[in-house]
Write a structure and sequence with these properties.
Layout (H helix, E strand, L loop, with lengths): L1 H25 L2 E7 L8 H15 L4 E6 L1 H4 L5 H6 L5 E3 L24 H10 L2 H9 L23 E4 L15 E4 L1
Parallel strand pairs: 1-2, 1-3
Antiparallel strand pairs: 4-5
Helix pairs in contact: 5-6
Length: about 180
């Protein structure tokens, strides 16, 4: 009789554990992501959609990411503040938008005449750049990760380019007085 009671208790414990594990496995979580770009902005908008899709696939549907584009949250340059305040769980933007709040973040994004993509990734992953970036964001209770650069079909990384608007490249003095923009 005592063996039967112990056996029954063990079966009940296993069943309870299985039931609670199964219930936890069915629970889903949704994280909110704010992005600076509009909902159909090429490349950057595609990046967040692909990220959300990958996360959902890797978690077997348990983790979902709701993307709010600039048209939804109405503060495209306020992504840093919204994530810091806890309105959003994560953001997709460029750190040069908050250079007035945290000027050190400029080194972790593309900027005119800065590092190209290959140099920047070498610094991030082999020169201490990632550790420095986390140190800069730590006082704000945030983590930052570099966005994935674009790879060519032959396996080479496409470098960042500085581009002069409206004129082809020429002698150095041909660009004086023109505004430059950085594309990555």
């Amino acid at each position: 009789m005592m063996i039967r009671s112990i056996f029954s208790a063990a079966i009940l414990a296993v069943a309870a554990t299985f039931a609670s594990t199964h219930a936890l496995a069915q629970e889903t979580f949704t994280l909110k992501l704010a992005e600076t770009w509009g909902p159909n902005f090429p490349i950057f908008g595609d990046t967040t959609k692909n990220f959300a899709k990958s996360v959902e696939e890797m978690s077997n549907g348990r983790l979902k990411i709701r993307i709010d584009s600039a048209n939804k949250h109405k503060a495209p340059l306020g992504v840093f503040d919204m994530v810091k305040a806890g309105q959003y769980d994560m953001g997709h933007s460029a750190s040069y938008y908050w250079k007035g709040k945290v000027p050190e973040t400029l080194f972790f994004t593309s900027m005119p005449f800065g590092m190209n993509a290959i140099e920047q990734y070498a610094w991030f992953y082999h020169g201490g750049g990632m550790e420095l970036m986390q140190e800069v964001y730590a006082p704000h209770n945030m983590l930052s990760f570099p966005r994935r650069q674009h790879w060519r079909s032959d396996g080479r990384l496409v470098p960042q380019r500085n581009q002069v608007a409206g004129r082809p490249s020429g002698p150095e003095n041909a660009h004086s007085g023109l505004r430059r923009r950085s594309l990555c």
